[in-house]
Structure formats: structure tokens, C-alpha cells
Amino acid sequence: MSATAAGPAARLQIAQYLRALQQRAGLRQTEVARRAGCGTTTVARYMDWRSTARLSVPMVRSIADACDATAAERDRLAELVMVQSVGWQLDDPGVPEWMDPLVSLEGVAQGIDAYACGLVPGLLQTPAYAIATHQAAGADDEESERRAAARIRRQDVLSRDDLRLRVVLAESALRWCVGGPEVMRTQIDHLREMMDHPNVDLRVLPYGAGATAADSGGNFVILRRDDETEPFSMTVVYLELHARGLYLDTAPDTETYKVTFTALLDQAAGDSAALLAVARKEFQ
To answer: Residue 167's beta-bridge partner residues?
Structure first.
């Protein structure tokens, strides 16, 4: 079978599972490569989801075999190579290349946990708010509208019954006047409506909460798929920087952010609806 351009989400799941098989077998990558009859660079590429080289079913089977995978495990890995699409975002000019993996991961995640201390997360933004954020970053009107449209399209994932979005929004994000008072009123109204969405858990972290577990960092997103059928599980942390995204997928990193987010949820366990109402009054 010819090589295929599996999307970032599929590549992440394949890479994480192959690394797990390697660890279970207690092998170095050089030994995996010797057993699979390929070079170490090939093994490293299949275990690094950021690689853009095409994947092939025979090679992923060979590497899995080298790691003593079962027939069922090999078949599931092959399925990921074959069926996962690259995603709509690759053809959308409103999505920068460094955000392609994020959109792909959102499409298969069963859980998304987001902490935001500056701006409202993209999955909860209104069109006007999204346009204002891009204009503030220096984009012209046409580019701002194009990027905002792509951001709103990402929100289609919230219609999935199998996805749960949890957001901890620092109260400071409600005080930044993005786009003007009217834009802020509409945005806060939208946040209040989303609190009633069945698969959205939105909490506001008040100023009075004091120091938090996230004070040494900033915004982050945890994307998870806890599937009973390996290798379809995944966990990755996304950090958005000024002009690029940083993705963390090793267990020590992801576990640290999971613990941090759990602590933030506990600190934001108050009356979030009341905090939204107070913030809205400031933009009358």
C-alpha cells in the first residue's frame, strides 16, 4: 500500500502508541530499527508526530512487530494510518500552519481543558470578539475576518455529543475591553449562554482566589482522548505563543498540566454566573 498523509491527530496517536509499545518491550530505537529492518531515522520519524513525511501501513506494522505488538494492536495502528484525514484546516487560509495540529486534535478529542488568563478561548469567542483580537494583532480587516471565520468554524466541534469542554477563565479576561463595550457585552452574554451548554463547564477564576498553580506560566489547552481501544487514546498540551504554537506530548509534561488544571478548577468553584454579570455591568 502506498504511503498516506495521515493528519496530525492520527500521527500523534500513532507516535504515542508506538512509543508506549517500545517502552513496554524495553527496547532502544536502534534495536527497534534493527528488528524492523529499517533505519533509526525512520523509527524516530514514526515516533515523532510532528514529522510531515508520509506514513505507510507496512512500515507501521513492521515497527509495531519489532516492539512485540499483538495482531490486534498492529491492525489498529494500520487503521489510524488509513482512515484519519488531514482535516479542513489545511485548505483554509484563515488557519496558520502552526495551528493545523490544534484544529486536527480538536476534531478527535473527547476532552478539552483550557485555562485562559488574557483573552477568551477561541472555542468560546463571538465573531466580533475574534475579529477584534486579530485587528489588535495588526491584521487588516480582510485578514481579520478570514481568521475569525476559521476560528468560528472550529467551534463546530462543540456540537459533538462525545466532547466535553472545560474552561477556567481568569476574571482579568473579562475586564479587558476587546473591540469596545458592545463587543464585550455580547461576548459576556455568549459566555453566559455557553454555561448552559450540556457539554461545557465554564468557570471564572476570581481575583480573590489569590495565587494559582498557573501563575508561573500562562494560557494552556489540554486535549485528551481516553479511548478504551488503544491506540486511539491521546493527550497533548498546546501552548500558544506570539506567532507559533508549542505542543507537549510526553507523559511528565501532560501530567503536570493535568494536575495544574485540576487545581484551577477547584479554585474557580464559586458563582461564575454572578462574576459574569458583574463584569458585564462595567461595559454598560
So the answer is: 114, 202
Separation between Cα atoms, residue 65 and residue 174, nearest integer Å: 52
SS3 258: helix
* Vertex 129 angle, CA 165 and 117, to 5°: 55
Instruction: Name, in order, each residue with C-beta under 8 angstroms of 140's C-beta and a sequence gap of 6 or more.
Output: none
Q: Find all residues with CB under 8 Å of 49, minimum gap 6, and list them.
A: 8, 11, 12, 14, 15, 16, 101, 249
- Rounded to whole angstroms, the Cα distance separating 116 from 264 reads 11
Please give the grid coordinates belonging to residue 261.
Answer: 488544571
Distance between CA 268 and CA 114 in Å, rounded? 13
Q: What is the pLDDT of residues 3-44, one digit of tens each?
A: 444 578 888 889 989 999 999 999 999 999 999 999 999 999
Q: State how far the Cα of 16 lies from the Cα of 233, in Å rounded to an integer.
A: 9
- Beta bridge pairs of residue 203: 168
| Percentage above 90 pLDDT, the chain | 68
Q: Which residue has the higher pLDDT, 15 or 88?
A: 15
Apex 180 CA angle, 212 and 135, nearest 5: 85
* Strands (E) located in 117-267: 164-170, 200-205, 220-225, 234-240, 245-248
pLDDT in tens, 226-235: 876 667 778 9
d(CA 164, CA 155): 12
Nearest CA to 174 out of 150, 214, 154, 202 is that of: 202
| Nearest CA-CA partner of 194 in 239, 153, 162, 159 | 159
